[in-house]
Design a protein that fits this description.
Blueprint: E1 5-8, H1 15-22, H2 25-28, H3 41-51, E2 57-64, E3 67-76, E4 84-91, H4 100-115, E5 121-127, H5 131-139, E6 143-154, E7 157-167
The chain binds coenzyme A.
Length: 173
């Protein structure tokens, strides 16, 4: 059983915990380059200021034992792809291996479907070498849609992306 978690909006005052947990190369290496390394207090401050009420975005801090220990969020695509939302997440290393992200993902999926009634599919793109994240998605009910071969370049290395998804009409809730 993972420890109790609370998904809640990011708020003023989260900067210190956000900086402390996010400032980790093992996290940044598995995310888009927009997630910086090193991760400074100014990065945390910028994130918290720009994130609130962003159109087309739904973002939560993962609160553990009273502090923001990670983040999970979705962005709705546009135009004909507005039936899809992309989900992403990270967790502070001190909390890894306790089932926390799996639990956060299980809680976030119904929140995304409820927030956007027109979203039919939630997907994620995982760098091929990120075994832990692929396992988290599998445990939360996502299935492999396909492998995007040589789709990204991270830290100068080209890699495949495993694209996984879950659908409104078939997820078990
Ligand atoms: C990926 C990440 C979110 C996992 O968070 P977590 O809370 O530790 O995940 P959980 O505890 O819910 O589950 C992790 C699972 O991966 C497994 N796992 C961990 N490392 C693994 C590895 N190297 N190879 C295979 N499986 C691995 C664990 O055993 C566990 O599966 P199990 O329950 O079957 O034993 C966290 O490591 C992280 O923030 N990583 C950096 C950012 C990132 O990768 N974000 C996702 C981008 S798509």
């Amino acid at each position: 059983m993972p420890p109790p978690i609370l998904l809640r909006p990011w708020r003023e005052g989260d900067q210190t915990a956000l900086k402390r947990h996010a400032n980790n190369r093992k996290i940044a290496d598995n995310l888009r380059d927009v997630f910086p390394h090193p991760y400074t207090y100014a990065d945390a401050d910028w994130y918290i200021r720009q994130i609130s009420g962003q159109e087309g975005h739904l973002n939560f801090a993962i609160e553990i034992a009273g502090e923001a220990g990670g983040g999970i969020g979705a962005v709705r695509l546009t135009d004909v792809y507005q039936a899809s939302a992309e989900i992403g997440y990270w967790l502070g290393e001190v909390y890894w291996g306790q089932g926390i992200t799996t639990e956060a993902l299980r809680q976030t999926v119904p929140l995304v479907f409820a927030h956007w009634p027109g979203v039919e599919r939630i997907f994620a793109g995982v760098f091929a070498r990120n075994a832990a994240s692929k396992r988290v998605l599998e445990k939360a009910g996502f299935t492999l849609e396909g492998v995007l071969r040589r789709a990204i370049i991270k830290n100068g290395t080209v890699d495949d992306v495993h694209q996984v998804a879950i659908w409104r009409d078939s997820y078990s809730g």
